[in-house]
Amino acid sequence: MNPFVSRINRGSWELPVCGLCIVLGVMIYLTQINPSTRASRNISAAQSSRIDTTDTELQNQYNKLSAQVQHLQEDNTKLQNAMANQSNQGKVLNQGLQDTKLFAGLTEVEGPGVTITLRDSTKPPPVTDSKPEVVAQELNSIIHDDDVLKVVNELWASGAEAISVNNHRVSIGTSFRCVGPTILVDGARIASPVVIRAIGDSETLKGGLNIPGGILDQLRQQDPAMVEIETVKKHVLPAFTGSTQHTLLSVPKVTK
Amino acid sequence: MIILLPIVCIALGVLIPYVLHLQPAHGIEATYLAVACIAGLDTVCGGIRTGLEGKFHNDVFLTGFFSNILIAFFFAWLGDKIGLDLALAAVLVLGTRIFTNLSLIRRFLLTKWQDERQRRKLQRQSAPATTNT
Question: Residues near A62 by Cβ (< 8 Å), separated by ≥ 6?
Fold first, then answer.
């Protein structure tokens, strides 16, 4: 007798099929793509973990090094002052040196000014669809690197004497770049809320920032809650801790 | 109508993690699981077809389900490791098989339904004749 014939119709198929259908349903639910899982799906596991580790490592390293730079610069100023006290000539020279350092942003500074806080808009977009104008509005509702850049530029133009962005001093060579969802100030990563502090005449700074059609006006049109300006009687801005190295530049020799 | 039971069961399976508030899987592993899902779907379709044809074997079906899922998962993982999109190959083959199985199920049900109709028609034709005599 054919051995397969005896096994035909042995037991019903409905029960095992239905049981495994439930398992399949659970699996399908677990593999669905939603907004929180979409980003992690299109990059290989090895790559994403590597990016994660290097990124945080670099950030930690950067923060540690900039704290060290700040410490060394304070020591340097102390030593220069101590040396200068030994002679009158030294005192004059040191005065010039300290003025230059103040100008370059290499020392902590304090003074009156304003604090500007830029926040991502929490207002929900009017309709959630992919029309170009809606997408543009969504893009406008977050703080970008160029918003920060424009505010800083506006502050310099209004006569600010020193500026810091999220406690990173803005000085010669400071750059603002967009990296993924965050903004890089020199090497440090910041995100919303962005706190820009400036030293200068607060009324002039405020007037300069609030000009119609200016950057803050544009942001307020999107959502008034995105911008906040406060007058500060006295605040302390940290020293610039970015790179001060130069390899190619030198002062030309004066020939008479 | 028994054919609707597996669909109801899949819906039930989707509801369970939803009720338990389980989060969908993150990362590239979720893609492997997605390929495994297709493999599972293929096996279930094959199971229904053999069930309808009367050739269903419980052991073959159960081992087939789990081994297909594991093989698909491994295939997708291997493809990722060697930089080839082998998941796509698995999806292609499994997709073809799902289509074949579903079309066989459809033809089986269609034939069954047509047979039924034909039989009733013949019975109705022969019934008055038998009562008259």
Answer: A187, A188
Distance from C-alpha of B50 to C-alpha of A157, rounded to nearest angstrom: 79
Report d(CA B61, CA A23) in Å as an integer.
14
How far from chain centre, in Å, is Cα A10? 67
- The pair of structure tokens assigned to A68 is 């060290």
Distance, in Å, from the CA atom of A223 to the CA atom of B76, rounded to the nearest integer, reads 46
- Sheet of A176-179: strands edge to edge? A176-179, A182-185, A188-190
- A159 near B CB under 8 A: no
B13 touches chain A (CB under 8 A): yes
Q: Which residues contact A58 (CB under 8 A, 6 or more apart)?
A: A187
The answer to whether the CB of A148 falls within 8 A of the CB of A194 is yes
C-alpha span between A228 and A195 (Å, rounded): 9
The label of the residue with tokens 């034709």 reads B125
- Closest residue in A to B23 (Cα–Cα): A30
- Over residues B19-51, the pLDDT tens digits come to 888 888 777 778 888 888 999 999 999 998 998
What letter would DSSP give residue B24? P
**Contact yes or no for A221/A227 (Cβ under 8 A):** no
* HSE-up of residue A53 (Cα within 13 Å, Cβ side): 5
Minimal CA separation from A6 to chain B, in Å: 11
The residue type of A35 is P
Give me the residue label for tokens 């069930």.
B51
Residue range A178-237, pLDDT digits in tens: 877 788 888 788 887 899 999 999 899 998 888 888 888 888 888 888 888 989 899 899
Q: Give the minimum alpha-carbon distance from A162 to chain B in angstroms, rounded to a whole number.
A: 44
